[in-house]
Design brief:
CATH architecture of the largest domain: 3-Layer(aba) Sandwich
Structural class: alpha/beta
Helix content: 40-55%
Order of helices and strands: HHEHEEHEHEHHHEHEHHEHEHH
Number of helices: 14
Strand order of the largest sheet: 2-1-3-4-5
Radius of gyration: 20 Å
Number of strands: 9
Oligomer: single chain
CATH superfamily of the largest domain: Glucose-6-phosphate isomerase like protein, domain 1
Strand content: 5-15%
Length: 347
């Protein structure tokens, strides 16, 4: 466990970065818009390659793109590109450090098939290769934990792909950022909803469910809890869980139920059968003794629902880190893994 002073310093830094999410979203959008290409060509497939904190923004963007544009955005968390990537395919390579080996390998593979590439990075080998090859680069501010740059990358992706929307999102992004800033004091308060959810999750296995269009928000909650609070978490999507996981939950005993706490991220735009299924699922969990409660995402705008969900979840993870007395700024296990990968091969 880190010394209290180091832990407090790390917590303050991560809270400041979380509070910067609205500004990141606006800045990233403007930067992406500057290098956006016209919405031309027959192909509507876009591939976003990244790992960890560099990958989640593509999942979040897909929640909006799938409903509002003809684009099909595919997230690739692998060094190997699918065979569907071919000449003139659009490939966005995201690596905060610029040195993620999986992303660099995919960058080279995309070049070999003459795909149209864009790099999103703060520097490193990815920026160097892109400059060498004349590939557009969306430069991220340096010195951040990759997971804390999600606003820059999400905004950047939306800016890059803005020409595919029926109308520009510039004023929309500004309006949403203003809403997020108004919510910040509430989410950062020890008496607010984020702190309340941290209390619900404390000492239990956090399990987050969301309607399929917003499952990326549930995934973001999971990964932030794991990296910031150093606690395992689970996520899944609705209505899929009503076709399989519900059987496991139905069979759970009271003693085992105490190990879990469930958050249901709901969006009013979900189909009525999904909403009814969700209510049945919620009652089943309660009957089995599983602590469960729902969170309503803003119904008016999909992008706003995504952004509000991210802001709330990030603060939940930080309050949970406080309760667990861990430094949310460190990810020592990932550092050890990188050192092991960089060393000589094991026998």
């Amino acid at each position: 466990m880190p010394p209290p002073t180091a832990r407090a310093s790390g917590a303050l830094r991560m809270r400041a970065l979380a509070a910067g999410f609205p500004t990141q979203l606006v800045d990233g959008f403007r930067a992406g818009l500057e290098i956006a290409a016209p919405a031309t060509g027959r192909s509507t497939a876009v591939y976003a390659v990244g790992m960890g904190g560099s990958a989640i923004a593509a999942d979040l963007a897909r929640s909006v793109l799938a409903a509002e544009t003809p684009l099909a955005l595919t997230s690739i968390r692998s060094p190997d590109l699918p065979r569907a990537v071919e000449r003139k395919s659009r490939v966005v390579l995201v690596s905060y450090s610029g040195d993620t080996w999986e992303t660099l390998r995919a960058y080279d593979a995309a070049g070999r098939v003459d795909a149209v590439r864009v790099a999103i990075t703060s520097g490193g080998a990815l920026a160097a290769r892109a400059e060498r090859d004349g590939v557009p680069v969306l430069l991220l501010p340096p010195g951040l934990p990759p997971r804390a740059s999600v606003g820059h990358v999400l905004g950047g992706l939306l800016g890059l792909l803005d020409p595919w929307f029926p109308e520009s999102n510039e004023s929309r992004v500004g309006r949403i950022a203003a809403r997020l800033r108004r919510l910040l004091p509430q989410y950062a308060s020890a008496r607010g909803p984020a702190a309340a959810w941290a209390r619900r999750f404390s000492g239990r296995l956090p399990t987050i469910y969301a309607e399929s269009a917003f499952v990326a928000v549930a995934r973001r909650w999971k990964t932030q809890i794991e990296e910031n609070a150093k606690s395992l978490a689970l996520f899944d999507e609705l209505p899929e869980v009503l076709h399989n996981s519900i059987v496991g939950w139905d069979a759970i005993g009271k003693a085992e139920a105490r190990r879990f706490s469930v958050a249901l991220l709901e969006w009013a735009g979900a189909p009525p059968p999904t909403r009814r299924g969700l209510r049945h699922f919620e009652r089943l969990l309660a009957l089995r003794g599983v602590p469960v409660a729902s969170i309503e995402l803003p119904p008016e705008d999909r992008l706003e629902a995504v952004a509000v969900g991210v802001l709330l979840g990030d603060h939940v993870s930080l309050f949970l880190a406080d309760r667990r007395r861990v430094d949310p700024s460190t990810t020592d296990a990932i550092g050890r893994l990188k050192s092991a990968l960089a060393g000589p091969p094991s026998r």
